[in-house]
Design brief:
Elements (H helix, E strand, L loop, with lengths): L20 H20 L3 E2 L5 E3 H4 L15 E3 L5 E4 L4 H10 L8 E10 L11 E10 L4 H17 L6 E7 H11 L4 H11 L2 H13 L2 E3 L5 E3 L5 H12 L12 H14 L4 H19 L6 E3 L13 E12 L5 E12 L14 E7 H11 L11 E3 L7 H13 L4 E3 L7 H10 L4 E4 L2 H6 L1 E6 H8 L5 H7 L3 E5 L3 H12 L1
Parallel strand pairs: 1-5, 7-10, 14-15, 14-16
Antiparallel strand pairs: 2-4, 3-4, 5-6, 6-13, 7-11, 8-9, 11-12, 12-13, 16-17, 17-18
GO molecular function, one term: histidine-tRNA ligase activity
EC number: 6.1.1.21
Subunit structure: Homodimer.
């Protein structure tokens, strides 16, 4: 007797997720809304592949020190290393450089698709997730950056999140100026400082000070080595972070708050030309934002640094401001659902001339979760097809003809393909498919030239009011007959009535 073959365990890889029809439909509706705003601003779609040559993507991932960390890579048959894209921006830079001669400048595009990170998965942290980006390549002025911020605000409003978000804006040039004034000289130390400041929302000022100094030990005992700055250097950087805190009586995000923050930043950069350029860019951006009426939705916030190393100027982040409970049951602000900034050096990796660029990326999965929490995600279960039941196996061709008529009229329809011996199981299948109706034609109906149509939506509603099973069977709620010749018209009317 041979040993039975061992079954393979059905396991989803860690850091990945399956999506149901309801989730796909809801996220699709959200993406359509975002797309409509992007197109209203004059952006056009472009699509790049999942794989790029590894050298094309570069080494820009946050929190990675090894050149091969954070990405999924393989070698093709000519031993060229390729990697799954970790964002949608680096592939755009390659696409623009490769098609430089034929593309309009500035080039305005949007892209949507999956990106991949070879990182340790955790709660809300996936190895595959979807992003939706918009970028302007070839525009150097602050007008392009201001437009990105305003477009993101309009996206949030269109998704029903008005009053529950803020677009936070900073400039990496200002931070570079402050770092110069504080005497932070080496690239390695600057990177450690950027990572520390980026943790402000998570660890607070106290935690950031530890990361700027010797280091920080978390609750599990794991130690993160700090930047090793002196007390004086740390004080300068803390003053920088606190420059965005409004004074008593000043409303956060108001013109008075913006002016006060810009003045404070100007006083912290010393004589740094880079820092001064950053301050002037912020002043220009907020002049444009205020003139367009977005002042209350777009805020100046010096704590925004963004993790990716390719940012060279203004950086932005969408923060949802409502409270949710974390895994520990604590009330916390929902936080970021997207971000971006200016990356003037990324395209120039492929061309000798400077190519300015700025863009924004929305985290689709995280934003969908936020919309679900606020009741703005939309439909959770798409309407299924009309199901033609098979009452007589020898009449399969007749049932298939009904399905063809419905499909030719643009109506979703299918013939039941399972075990047809049990009528109840056929109806249960249609229920599970969220079908709006089933069509029944037995021998009696066929002789009379009629069909029975069971409205499953009305049937569920009527059945809820009937407690007696016999009464339910006798009433046959939601069921009616129609001439066979009027099949399409009867179903069209039923679907219209269900709207």
């Amino acid at each position: 007797m041979t040993e039975k073959a061992k079954l393979i365990a059905a396991r989803l890889p860690r850091g990945f997720e399956d999506r149901s029809p309801g989730e796909i439909a809801a996220v699709g509706a959200m993406i359509d809304t975002i797309k409509s705003v992007y197109e209203r601003y004059g952006f056009d779609p472009v699509e790049t592949p999942l794989f790029e040559y590894t050298e094309t993507l570069g080494k820009f991932l946050p929190d990675t020190d090894r050149p091969n960390a954070g990405v999924f890579s393989l070698q093709d048959d000519d031993e060229q290393w390729m990697s799954l894209r970790y964002d949608l921006t680096a592939p755009l830079a390659r696409y623009f450089a490769e098609n430089f001669e034929t593309l309009p400048k500035p080039y305005r595009s949007y892209r949507q698709g999956y990106v991949f990170r070879n990182e340790k998965p955790g709660p809300g942290r996936f190895r595959q997730f979807m992003q939706f980006d918009a970028d302007t390549v070839g525009a150097a002025g602050p007008e392009a950056d201001a437009e990105m911020c305003m477009m993101m605000a309009d996206v949030m409003d269109a998704l029903g999140l008005a009053g529950q978000y803020v677009v936070r804006v900073n400039n990496r040039k200002v931070l570079d100026g402050v770092l110069d004034a504080a005497g932070v000289a080496t690239d390695a130390q600057k990177l450690t400082v950027l990572r520390a400041i980026d943790k402000l929302d998570k660890f607070g000022t106290t935690g950031v000070k530890l990361l700027l100094g010797a280091g920080r030990k978390d609750e599990s005992g794991d130690f993160t080595k700090g930047a090793g700055l002196s007390a004086e250097q740390i004080d300068t950087l803390v003053a920088y972070l606190e420059s965005g805190v409004p004074a008593a009586g000043v409303e956060k995000g108001s013109n008075a708050h913006v002016v006060a923050t810009i003045n404070a930043l100007a006083g912290l950069i010393g004589g740094s030309e880079t820092g001064l350029a950053g301050v002037q860019e912020l002043a220009s951006i907020f002049g444009l934002v205020s003139a367009a009426g977005f002042g209350g939705r777009v805020h100046l916030d010096p704590s925004v640094v963004r993790g990716l190393e390719y940012y060279t100027g203004p950086v932005f982040e969408i923060e949802l401001t409502f409270k949710v409970q974390n895994e520990k049951g604590q009330d916390v602000v929902f936080g970021s659902v997207g971000g971006g900034g200016r990356y003037d050096g990324l395209v120039s990796r492929f061309r000798r001339e400077p190519v300015p660029a700025t863009g924004f990326s929305v985290g689709v999965s995280r934003l969908a979760h936020a919309l679900k929490l606020t009741g703005n995600l939309g439909a959770t279960e798409p309407v299924g097809p009309v199901v033609v039941l098979v009452m007589d196996k020898d009449q399969t061709a007749s049932y298939q003809a009904m399905v063809a008529e419905l499909r030719n009229a643009g109506i979703r329809a299918e013939m039941f393909l399972g075990n047809t011996k049990n009528f109840g199981k056929q109806v249960a299948y249609a229920d599970k498919r969220n079908a709006p109706a089933v069509i029944i034609e037995g021998s009696q109906e066929r002789e009379q030239g009629i069909i029975q149509i069971k409205d499953l939506i009305a049937g569920k509603q009527a059945a809820a009011a009937i407690t007696d099973n016999a009464e339910w069977k006798a009433a046959r709620p939601g069921q009616f007959e129609a001439p066979r010749a009027d099949l399409v018209e009867a179903i069209k009317k039923l679907l219209a009535d269900q709207q």
